[in-house]
Specification:
about 250 residues; 7 helices; alpha/beta; 2 domains
Length: about 250
């Protein structure tokens, strides 16, 4: 599978990955997130795990579960950490802690390395096996969080061995090593494959989108953090010199 990327990755990338893989070959690793399907993290893990395995890493994927109250809580956390004011009651904080404790008992966290994705499972650090190295990977922008929510989450985050962010400006100052994994796409995923003209025609016809002019398109879930207002502003700029049609395509968050 890794060889498929040779023609699209920068020269030498595949060889470098294989060289790095030999240094950790046979090591065990577990990824933990909050959903098996839906959302960018789950989509990414479905593609990444086979690559880890090809490099000789014994990798697993554990998914935490929780009550409706827990997922309402983490949705509020998600919004608050990205700067939208939320009302977080003591009951919600307690639900977050309790769900992480329950999952710590249920999940198999035995591995030499762990990658814990986003805020939902951050408190699992309490259950880190002795000698394991844990990394917190943050996929959202926490640069301007609601202070109370970040102050609640930060004591868990600072106990990790490292943190990974998507951009420098999305991060927080932390007393631990921080790394960057810049936004990217998988050119071989279903979402990014080339479409045949007749397939495009069928979709546009089904959705009632005319083909009489060029389309300016955003594909994402309907979420203020995807900046649809910015897309509309871009459309207005383009419209001044090019006649086109704006299409916002997506769905609700999972």
């Amino acid at each position: 599978m890794l060889e498929n990327y040779r023609d699209v990755a920068p020269q030498g990338t595949v060889e470098l990955l294989r060289q790095l893989g030999r240094q950790v070959e046979g090591k065990s690793m577990v990824h933990v997130n909050s959903t098996r399907y839906g959302g960018g993290v789950a989509e990414m893990l479905h593609r990444l795990l086979p690559l880890f395995e090809e490099l000789g890493i014994k990798v697993r994927w554990e998914v935490m579960t929780g009550s409706d109250l827990f997922y309402r809580t983490t949705k509020s956390f998600h919004n608050a950490l990205q700067g939208t004011r939320q009302r977080i009651t003591p009951e919600l904080y307690d639900a977050f802690i309790e769900c992480n404790r329950d999952n710590a008992k249920r999940l198999n966290l035995e591995a030499e390395f762990a990658m814990i994705h986003d805020p939902q499972p951050a408190a699992l650090i309490d259950a880190r096996p002795h000698g394991a190295r844990w990394i917190w990977r943050c996929h959202i922008d926490v640069s301007t969080p609601q202070h109370s929510v970040w102050q609640f989450l930060r004591p868990f985050v600072v106990r990790y061995d490292a943190a990974v962010f998507s951009l420098p400006k999305f991060s927080q100052r932390l007393p631990l090593p921080q790394f960057l994994v810049y936004p990217s796409i998988d050119p071989f995923s279903e979402k990014n494959r080339e479409l045949e003209p007749d397939e495009i025609d069928r979709v546009l016809q089904r959705l009632g989108v005319p083909r009489d002019k060029p389309i300016l398109l955003q594909v994402s879930r309907f979420d203020r953090f995807k900046d649809p207002v910015g897309v509309v502003a871009a459309y207005r700029l383009v419209k001044k010199s090019h006649d086109c049609r704006l299409v916002l395509a997506g769905g609700t968050a999972t």
